[in-house]
Amino acid sequence: MTIGLHPASRHQPASVRTSLFLFFLGMMVTLLVPAQEAEGQGYVMLAGGGAESAASGSWSNEPYGWFAQRATAVGEGRIVVLSNSDTSVWLPNYFTNLGATEVVNLTITGNTEAQILAALNGAGGVFLKGGDQRHYIDAWRGGAVEAAIRAVFDSGGVIGGTSAGAMVAGAYFTRGGTTSSQLLRNPWAGQDTMQENFLDLLPNTIIDTHYFERGRPGRLLSKMAFIVTEMGASGITGVGIDDKTAVMIFPDGRLRVSGTGGVHVLRSTPQTVFDAQPNQDLGLTGLAAHQLTHGFEIGLETGELLAQPDDAQTVEAFTGTGPDLTMHFRRTAWNSTYLNARADDSLRILLDSGEVSTNALLSHSVPVEVVPFDETLTEDPAWLESLFAGDRLFLNISPEEWLQLSSSEPFRMLTDGASTELELLTRHLPVMGEGYATNLTANGFIAYDGRMTVRPGSGFLPGTISVDSTYANQTFAENFASAPGWLMHSYQAHVALSGTRFTQLSYERGELRFDNTQVSTIIMDAREGYLTSASPFVASNASNRTRNSAAVSHGLMHVIPAGGSWQLYETEPVSIPAPAPELPAGFAIERVYPNPFNPATTILIRAESAADGFIEVFNVAGQRVYSRNLLLQQGMTPHSLNLSHQSSGVYLVRVTASGTTQQARITLVR
Fold it and tell me: Secretion system C-terminal sorting domain: from which residue to which, for each copy (predicted)?
């Protein structure tokens, strides 16, 4: 099809001909290009709160400059700054310095609706200041001002906001505030303040600001669960924005992170399961989670990572496994009720340095053998073996002493496959992972100032980080909320547990059980691998250090209520070692049974052909305690082993034939 001007038009003045050409060109574009949906035509810039700064290198220059650039390119290029009653001209002047051609500063209390509507007509950008989101909702929802703001967005303009002004950009928002601890205990607490149907710039989305600063992860997770469970949403995306941090969102859904802190994008998927009921602890599993820092870009609707900073590092998937034993953790001393539930013990060992009272333990009916802690003996095999002579080993020692003991290789060999159960204190849990923080309660600005002190843990629970008291004290909220991600980044860990005063937990051969916790435990699960990067910005004037904010680009979020459990590791049974693939010698230790044993067991060896060999057994000190020649038959060869002259403990069986060696761990329990 050919479209041209009417012949008579060629004799018209040039200006008329140009106007006619543009008219017909516009008609052609209208006919050939389908009209866009109104939703999503514009741009969005949201900040998590915190003071902007015009200084060179300030965190706010990029996102606020981006906002000003977008606004000046639409309509009359005017930016309208709105608030309830803030008449300060600092922000309008800041936008002007960033390139805005016209900025109008208006308030709900100081200007009429007509004045606000007149400014919005033809505007290219609208910015909502912080304060209280209820002022915007009460004044404008369902009225002409809301429609006028939407019109700016639908015409390709940009809508921005900070703090409360950012929270009203989503499809869902809250009119009031409840804490993470309250909502993790009861997702319905304060949810009568949940609202929808205002602006709706980001469909199926809820925004929360001052995210780490005010300890709000539990709040956002609970509200997402409420929206799906009670309000009937088929899916929900939560965006938590730290203070002095912003997101720039493009019409295609691309979200760019800028600023000193993190942006936390949480997305429900078909695999997400919400367990939310009134007056019950929150539970959920399989929520897609992305903790992103400056320079990352993500598809808000798809969760696809679109860009990353140049210094981002890859953390490969976790391939290890955890200790093969049972452990119990208590916040307080072992009392009679706890001990009575385990009254079938025949002997208990108490490794003691006086950390908590042991009166109930020592006066209980089950015999207790007390062993004073001795830091000089933590590598001594004989001393360590004596700790495993009972049914239960109580570790009444300090976290520092436990760190030393659990770092001991002979001790770890003894625990792997041990039938003796360990009784620990919850204060031991943080030092058992890859790393821990030491100064989270020094003051409320440790993470913000970049002063978090971290130390390597024992790695007894490999790949993990544990942070307790996350929501126990609002003063230190940012420190405790920032610590899991910062520690994962610092030690390339894969799982972070965030609890609030763990009361009683158990670990049984790879499974974590949250027997009794004050509030639900939040788990960041990045075992499939992720990208990580640290904030490049100094957030505080009190130090010249970059903020302790780190990215964990991909993961799953789980929230486990009291009484729930979660599989941390897939642990192979000690009794059936996995045979090596394509064994060059054509033989393998097929099975050891029974294992543990007392005092005899059978080692079953599979061979592809007959061969001469020998078998050896070593204790944890590396001393050979048994050796015999072997004649392996084709097929299965059983070998009886009796260690009646040896003490309880872990031993290593080594079989050698045709120049190749296979080995397995066995446990003697006397």
Answer: 592-664
